[in-house]
């Protein structure tokens, strides 16, 4: 394991996605061990799959309870009902929630079928504030550098809102759908300011198709061209990647 000791972002490169999943699940478990009332921010996409599997194993083997934990997700497709198999709500239940003892009332995801996305967004921010903010937010990164669904062009000050997905994201996410035309074109996502308020952030990236985004996030000017670059301004953020994702910036991780 190569580890950089500068304060933030901390940069950790591990061999492959299995090691990334084990390390990330241990970080989340450490948070739950320290505080059983933790508020954990969660992400969807293929990257955290294995992390959720490890967390389920830990839940069983260490009897780590989620009964008092609250979770907050980054985003949800707009126009997709929570029971639809393509919704992020469905994903979270299938990947994690159905296998741990979390209480339904402690799960927060945007309502993708609201007729009033402005009110939904405002309410989502209020709910996050009311539960005391996020202790640790696990996030992924899009191949274009997006975090949540904050696409390139998103402001550092952005808050939860309805957004249009970029063509790159629609193409990337089409692998989960029968046809590209089936991919939703809008989503409700928390903003960059919302993510930056988390007390700790853990960004995961695995695979070669994330190498350009990771390089841009760490080395290009901080700004809306690469939304993940804003994370460099966070006081406690870790970039946890595998060797393939670090390919274009190996020296950052040495
Ligand atoms: C979606 C999610 C992001 C996630 C990204 C990467 O766009 N909104 O939160 O980081 O997918 O997905 P994957 O891990 O499948 O590459």
Ligands bound to this protein structure: 2-amino-2-deoxy-6-O-phosphono-alpha-D-glucopyranose
What share of the residues does DSSP label as strand, in percent?
Answer: 15-25%
| Order of SSEs | EEHEHEEHEHEEHEHEHE
Share of helix, binned:
25-40%
Number of helices: 7
Question: What does this entry look like structurally?
Answer:
This protein is of the alpha/beta class. The protein contains 7 helices and 11 strands. It has an 8-stranded mixed beta sheet, sandwiched between helices. Helix 2 links the parallel strand 3 and strand 4. Mean pLDDT is 96; it is low at 1-6. It binds 2-amino-2-deoxy-6-O-phosphono-alpha-D-glucopyranose. 2-amino-2-deoxy-6-O-phosphono-alpha-D-glucopyranose binds at residues 43-47, 74-75, 140-142, 148-149, 169, 173.
Short key terms for the protein model shown above:
alpha/beta, 254 residues, 3-stranded antiparallel sheet, 11 strands, 7 helices, binds 2-amino-2-deoxy-6-O-phosphono-alpha-D-glucopyranose, disordered N terminus, single chain, 8-stranded mixed sheet
Summarize the structure.
This protein is α/β, with parallel strands linked by helices.
Q: What order do the helices and strands come in, and which of them pair?
A:
Elements: E1 2-3, E2 10-14, H1 17-34, E3 39-42, H2 49-61, E4 70-73, E5 75-77, H3 88-95, E6 107-108, H4 117-130, E7 136-139, E8 161-164, H5 167-173, E9 186-189, H6 192-196, E10 201-205, H7 211-219, E11 237-242
Parallel strand pairs: 2-11, 3-4, 3-7, 4-6, 7-10, 10-11
Antiparallel strand pairs: 1-2, 5-9, 8-9
Helix pairs in contact: 1-2
Bound molecules: 2-amino-2-deoxy-6-O-phosphono-alpha-D-glucopyranose.
């Amino acid at each position: 394991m190569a580890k950089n000791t500068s304060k933030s972002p901390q940069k950790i490169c591990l061999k492959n996605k299995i090691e990334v999943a084990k390390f990330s699940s241990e970080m989340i478990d450490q948070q739950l061990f320290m505080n059983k009332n933790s508020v954990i921010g969660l992400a969807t996409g293929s990257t955290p799959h294995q992390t959720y599997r490890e967390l389920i194993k830990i839940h069983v083997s260490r009897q780590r309870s989620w009964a008092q934990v609250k979770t907050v997700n980054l985003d949800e497709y707009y126009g997709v009902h929570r029971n639809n198999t393509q919704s992020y709500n469905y994903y979270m239940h299938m990947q994690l929630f159905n296998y741990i003892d979390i209480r339904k009332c402690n799960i927060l995801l945007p309502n993708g079928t609201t007729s009033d996305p402005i009110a939904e967004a405002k309410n989502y921010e209020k709910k996050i504030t009311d539960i005391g903010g996020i202790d640790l937010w696990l996030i992924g990164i899009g191949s274009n550098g997006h975090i949540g669904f904050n696409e390139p062009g998103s402001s550092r000050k952005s808050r939860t809102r309805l957004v249009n997905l970029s063509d790159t994201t629609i193409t990337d996410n089409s692998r989960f759908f029968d046809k590209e035309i089936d991919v939703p074109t809008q989503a409700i996502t928390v903003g960059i300011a919302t993510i930056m308020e988390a007390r700790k952030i853990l960004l995961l990236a695995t695979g070669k198709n994330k190498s350009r985004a990771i390089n841009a996030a760490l080395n290009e000017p901080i700004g809306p061209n690469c939304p993940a670059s804003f994370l460099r301004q966070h006081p406690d953020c870790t970039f946890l990647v595998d060797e393939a994702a670090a390919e274009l910036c190996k020296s950052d991780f040495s």
